Amino acid sequence: MADVKICGISDADMVKVAAEAGADWVGFVLVPQSPRNVLGSTASRFELVIDLLLAAATNNVRSVVLVSDPEPAILRGVGGTVMPDVFQLHGKESPEFVANFRASLPSSVEVWKAVGVSSREDLEEAARLYRSADRLLIDAKPPEGADRTGGHGAAFDWSILQDWAPATPWLLAGGLTPHNVAGAIKATGAPAVDVSSGVERQRGIKDADLVRAFIAAAKSQDYEGSHEQAKHMGTMARREGPLRRIWRALRR
Ligand SMILES: O=C(O)c1ccccc1NCC(=O)[C@H](O)[C@H](O)COP(=O)(O)O
């Protein structure tokens, strides 16, 4: 069963929704250009980040702080408050930066490196360069001229992943939705998946039913349907509770 990360959450209620639906990680974006940014611009810039990290801890779901070519002050600021379970580096961080950052943290905190790919060569290069990362997040390349590196709802050609077996654990990201995630897991063998746009009702605003539907589909791996069916599935997943969901999945 694939692990699931719901990325770009910006309020504590949605942390709870994702945790109750069975998410393995919740991600918080600290990138000012992002519509999901949770980093404030004033002296209390970490206030919301701290609230979200505490909400994740309270709801027993692992937290991922996402940064992109971060200023040292941001890393020091987060690390000096409530330590997340994971730092996800989603910019042009060099292999040396990743290795040094990894070495500076306790082993209980993971460092993930996100890479945009469009070819087999990109995948192989990422696996070779970023051996020190605890996980690779394999995403689509950002569109030409984009002001941020992720969260665009764009997929890449999954066929490049065929028989790819890197030494480093990895997650599949980019353009995943409740409708395509089960197929994506089947097609690629991804051990974990990540989503942001595909569970939003409008850019930057998460939809609780789509979050539930995505997690249910990723965990059962056999769901395909329309947007409305997906939302309905999310509602049913919420009503049924985890045992009933498992029972239904086993009966299929
Ligand atoms: O989500 C953002 O706005 C974002 C901004 C800057 C750097 C990375 C960002 N997101 C990274 C993620 O982990 C997304 O979940 C990943 O790119 C997949 O996004 P999507 O295709 O929208 O599901």
UniProtKB/TrEMBL annotation:
The gene is trpF. NCBIfam families: PRK01222.1-1. It comes from the Bacteria. The keyword Transmembrane helix does not apply. Belongs to the TrpF family. This is N-(5'-phosphoribosyl)anthranilate isomerase. Its EC number is 5.3.1.24. Residues 4-216 form the N-(5'phosphoribosyl) anthranilate isomerase (PRAI) domain. SUPFAM superfamilies: Ribulose-phoshate binding barrel. Keywords: Amino-acid biosynthesis, Aromatic amino acid biosynthesis, Isomerase, Tryptophan biosynthesis. It catalyses: N-(5-phospho-beta-D-ribosyl)anthranilate = 1-(2-carboxyphenylamino)-1-deoxy-D-ribulose 5-phosphate. One of its GO terms (molecular function) is phosphoribosylanthranilate isomerase activity. GO terms for biological process: L-tryptophan biosynthetic process. Gene3D superfamilies: Aldolase class I.
